[in-house]
Amino acid sequence: MVDEALLVNAFRRIQATRMTGIPILNPALEVEALGFRDWNGMRVGILITPWSINLVILRGSDAELQRLRLNERRTWAFPSGSYEFMGGDEPECGPFDFCSLFSPPEEFHDQTAARAVAESVVSQLFAPAQSLSRRALLMPSKPRGGDTAAAASMREFA
Q1: Which of these, 10, 54, 135, 146, could form a disulfide with 90 (CB 3.0-4.6 Å)?
Q2: Which of 1, 2, 90, 80 is nearest to 49 (CA)?
Q3: According to the model, what pLDDT value does residue 134 have?
Q4: Mean pLDDT per segment of 10 residues, for the chain of length 158 residues?
Q5: Where are the domains of the chain?
Q6: How far apart are CA 87 and CA 48, in angstroms?
Q7: Which residues are CB-neighbours of 29 under 8 A, at least 6 positions away?
């Protein structure tokens, strides 16, 4: 099982190295993992960074997560629906799958707002599709070019 702290360490390193000086960074946000829970042998939660907010799947105690090749995608079926994920792999945490919800997360004015949306997404992710309300799962806005189809489809409930 991968501890979320290892994921946070990996992305703090990325922020201090690969992301230094990149203009899309939101200075109001910091790297944080939250809402992680066990699901089908994996760990699922949200990773907030200054450059993106992602739904993340980490290997759990019961299963290994197979690494995806560059440009390869995997669909995960949750109670709320199916979403497409890409793969990542960092030395601190190993392979992980991620689904971009906001990239870049320019509409967030502080970490508290990002946390509130992240908690809502995780909660709604595990709600059965037929019981989902028409409320926005994410902050209401039109999908941007950087958003994935999953984020856009989540907004359709608004």
Answers
A1: 10
A2: 90
A3: 33
A4: 90 96 94 94 96 94 81 93 94 94 95 95 86 41 38 37
A5: 4-155
A6: 17
A7: 48, 49, 50, 105, 108, 110, 111, 114
- What's the order of all strands across the beta sheet hosting 42-48? 32-39, 42-48, 53-59, 94-102, 81-90, 73-78
Secondary structure of 112-139 in the HEC alphabet? HHHHHHHHHHHHHHCCCHHHCCCCCCCC
| Residues found in the chain | 158
Q: Which amino acid is at 75?
A: T
pTM of this prediction exceeds 0.85: no
State how far the Cα of 126 lies from the Cα of 88, in Å rounded to an integer: 23
Helix (H) or strand (E) holding 155: helix 149-155
**118 alpha-carbon distance from chain centroid:** 8
In the prediction, which pLDDT does 25 show?
A: 95
Superfamily of domain 4-155: [NiFe]-hydrogenase assembly chaperone, HybE (3.30.1460.40)
Confirm if 97 and 76 have CB atoms less than 8 A apart. Answer: yes
Q: Which residue has the tokens 């809502």?
A: 120
Give the tokens for residue 68.
């995806």
